Amino acid sequence: VVSHSIHDAHGNRKTLGLIFPGSYTFNTAASERMQITSGSCEVKVAGDKIWTPYHHGQEFMVPASSSFEISVKDGIAEYLCIFA
Fold it and tell me: Regarding beta strands 67-72 and 22-27, do their DSSP bridges make them parallel or antiparallel, or are they unpaired?
């Protein structure tokens, strides 16, 4: 996983990144809106029982003080993470 932070004109932080094939777990401090901008992945937010597929143009929400698992099977998934 490669992630780069950016700040907009209002000081809001966002991250842009690449997720290479594999499975990863991330913890959240703030709530996050994850937009998949290229590729595909499967996600399981803490408390969910099933993995949900996401593709280019789709997004998912992760609550603050939580976690999520993300899995990329083939290729690279690209994302934009917006912190709320």
Answer: antiparallel
